[in-house]
């Protein structure tokens, strides 16, 4: 079987504001899900975004969809990544598929990243302003560049402002106080978080050139809070 051309896949993804986010061949340490014809896949290529590059593409798609469509961003990503998968003989999977696939573990292996104190993987260029929207599973064993160990910017950040900006201390060394955060975002005092995004995430000094605009952050906060 001829291996797909990664440059051609990149060009197809770029037509939706998406980018390749690294990949690897499955081995005994990473059990493989089913590929295009149901057999265990041999390679995975992660697909995602840097900054808010997908936003104009998503908004154009959204205009043609029902106003009450649930999880529209997930639906958009499934559709466009699914189209690319069919073009290149792959099987598309999503982070929201159930049973859940180990996307974060895949991402750490594919790009050599580690989690920030907020749980979001810290990228050496994008900071916290990136996302994984899906993955392509292939029957062929694709060749990827060797992943070099990345400087973990959180280790170089002495002040940890991401743990100090939240008015209800939702994030701490002890973990994420989900219920406390959600109550605040939904409440009368959480208007700034709803319209400008998570204060802890915005306090991170890295990747600021890729920071999501306020309307994009508001979209995500509204979805998170179920508003």
UniProtKB/TrEMBL annotation:
Lineage top rank: taxon: Bacteria
Residue intervals of the 4Fe-4S ferredoxin-type domain: 144-176
Protein name, as recorded: Ferredoxin
Organism in which the protein naturally occurs: Aminobacter aminovorans
The organism's taxonomic lineage, starting at the top: Bacteria, Pseudomonadati, Pseudomonadota, Alphaproteobacteria, Hyphomicrobiales
